[in-house]
Amino acid sequence: MTPDTSTPRQAGSPASSPSAGRWRLDPAGTASVGSRVLGLVTLVGIAAFLLVALVASPPDSGRDASINQMGEAVRIMYLHVPVAIVCFLAFFVTAASGAMYLWRKSEGWDLLAAASAEVGVVFTALTLATGSIWGRFAWGAWWVWDARLTTTALLLILFLGYLALRRAITDPVARAKRAAIAGLIGFADVPIVHYSVDWWRSLHQKATITRFNPTIDGLKLFALMFGMVVFLLVYAWLMVHRFRLQYVQARAEERGLDAAIAERRAEGSSGVASPLAGTGAAR
Amino acid sequence: MIVAASAWSFVAGAYSLVLVVLLAYVVRTVVLGRRLGRNLPPEKRRWM
């Protein structure tokens, strides 16, 4: 159960521990049995989603068409909407974890916030990209300075700033505190993105699914809801791994700091701390 | 017919983009985790 990590290749060899094998291909990695089961379920879900979204669901035309009459391009919505929902969720988790950090001062909340922000940035970029493709088809332009698009782009910039802030500060406590505040400020844009189509005149369509009155039905609605479930699974898998990665990075930072302190102490105790002593006097 | 073919190209572009980006992100996450994880003592890997 405790693989030897002193030699990098040995850790990955099948014979390094009794449990190594199909489920523990690399014990040094961030995977566990649970995360691999989740990954497998997610892969099956993605395959089923592609079948439903691209093959089984009908185009948005004919008698049962939605008010938007998107034709085959409605399939982009099955992708675009779930990706956008996950992006909102990711930033909600970042903000909530940041608030929990400010309250409890526990490293775990900070790592969770950081992991979710990274995943959120990827999903926001995908939201903008898929929306842009849809816009090119529906509106004839890759980009318009529409309220929904502009506020979403601002959201991406805010959380890129959040990630840049995390990289800029080396002290873990100061970084966690400032990042938590930045995450809460960044999340303030999420409701603005959501209500932008109601508050301002917008090219972007209003919500497809309201609480009791969706503007699509049947297989199209099923494809959309199924897409949401599948992308939530993708988010969950990514979060498990990114959180563990954050944890590994935090421990690596600690080890680096400990090594630097030990080095400085050794220098001090051996009497070679002075630059002059280190050049001529040592020889 | 031309409109439908054009729509399918947009659909294919969107799905390919999302799948490729997510796959690249997953691979990067796994590879980075394995590389950094080797420096972590086994007793500190709580998930194992």
Characterize the structure shown.
The complex is a heterodimer of chains A (283) and B (48). By secondary structure, chain A is mainly alpha-helical. Chain A has one domain (34-58, 79-264). Chain A has helices at residues 8-12, 33-56, 74-104, 107-138, 147-168, 172-187, 189-199, 218-270, 275-281. The longest helix of chain A is centred in the C-terminal third of the chain and has 53 residues, at 218-270. Residues 1-20 and 273-283 of chain A have low confidence and may be disordered. Chain B has one helix and no strands. Chain B has one helix at 2-37. The A-B interface holds A 1-5, 8, 11-12, 26-32, 35, 46, 50, 53-54, 59, 71-73, 75-76, 79-80, 83, 122, 125-126, 129-130, 133-134, 136-137, 234, 237-238, 241-242, 244-245, 247-249, 251-252, 255 and B 3-4, 6-8, 10-11, 13-15, 17-19, 21-22, 25-26, 29-30, 32-34, 36-48.
Radius of gyration of chain B using CA atoms only: 20 Å
Distance between the termini of chain A: 49 Å
Number of domains of chain A: 1
In what range is the share of β-strand residues of chain B?
A: under 5%
Q: What is the overall pLDDT average of chain B?
A: 85
Largest sheet of chain A: none
The dominant shape of chain A is elongated
Beta-strand percentage range of chain A: under 5%
Count of individual beta strands of chain A: 0
Q: In one word, what is the shape of chain B?
A: rod-shaped
Distance between the termini of chain B: 55 Å
Instruction: Please work out how many helical segments of chain A DSSP would assign.
Output: 9
Element order of chain B: H for helix, E for strand:
H
Number of strands of chain B: 0
Question: In sequence order, what are the helices and strands of chain A, one letter per element?
Answer: HHHHHHHHH
What does the secondary structure layout of this molecule look like, with pairings?
The complex is a heterodimer of chains A (283) and B (48).
Chain A: H1 8-12, H2 33-56, H3 74-104, H4 107-138, H5 147-168, H6 172-187, H7 189-199, H8 218-270, H9 275-281
Chain B: H1 2-37
